[in-house]
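Fresh eyes needed here. Kindly weigh in on this sequence plus C-alpha cells:
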Amino acid sequence: MSAALLAGKVVLVTGVVTTSSIAYGVARRAGDLGADVVLTALHRDLERAEEAAATLGIDTVLPYDVTQAGSGTELVASVGEQFGRLDAALHAIAFAPRAALSGSMLGVDPTDLERAFRTSTVSYADLADVLRQLAPASGASLVGLDFDAGGAWPVYNWMGVCKAGLEALNRYLARDLGELGIRANLVAAGPIHTRAAGGIPGFDALLDAWSDRAPLAWDPHATEPTADATCFLFSDLARAVTGEILHVDGGYHAMAAPLQRSPTPA
C-alpha cells in the first residue's frame, strides 16, 4: 500500500492494550500509511495502552468504556477538541465471561449474556454514533473486527451469537449511515494469538482446523494481513464498499470440508 494512503485522515482505534493485538497492528499500519491515530482504552487499561502507544509514537490515548453512559459523549468532545474531525474508526471491543465461551449454551447466567451482548455488539452502534458526530462532509469509514458467524464453532458459544448480531448490525448501520457518506464494514479474521484469544477455552482446536482447511498458509501470530485489509477499508479505495464482511482467514470460510493436500513432489 502507498505510504500516503491515509494521509490527512484521523483514525480512532479502540481496544489497544497489548502489542500483540489486532488493534495494535491496525494502529501501527494506519500510522505508517500517514494517518493521525487516536487510541482509546478502558480506564483500568489506560496505562498499558499508553505504553503501547509510546512504541508507535502516538500521543493521544483517551478513556472510552462502552458500558458507561456518557462515555461516547466525552469521547466526541475530546476528539473534536484535539482534531476537529474523525475520518475512520475501528471497533475492536468484545467481552464474554468464560462460562459463556465453552460447554453448553444452556444455563448461562442471563446477566453475563446481557453484558456480553452490550459490550461486544451494541457498542458497535455506539461507536458509529461517535463517528457520525465527527465525520467530515466527505464521508468516513467504520470497521469492526469479526469472527465468522456463519456457522457454529466447537468453542466460542455465546460470543459466536454476539458476532452474529454484530454482522446483522453492520448491515443496518450501512443502511442508516450511507446517506451521510459513512461506510460500515467488518473484517472477519482467522484465529490470532491475542489476549482475547487466550480467554477462549479450546482456542488451539481452532488453529488445528485452520491447518487442515485453509488453502492459504495461516500464521496465527501475524496481525499484518488483517491490519492491511482494515486500512484498505479505511481508505478512499473502498469508497463504494459498505455492508460488507471482508474475510481475512486464508480462505477457510470458503471451503466446505478439510482439504486433500497434494503430495509434495520429490
Observations:
- DSSP finds seven helices and seven strands in the chain.
- Residues 3 and 32 are 6 Å apart (CA to CA).
- The chain has a mean pLDDT of 92.
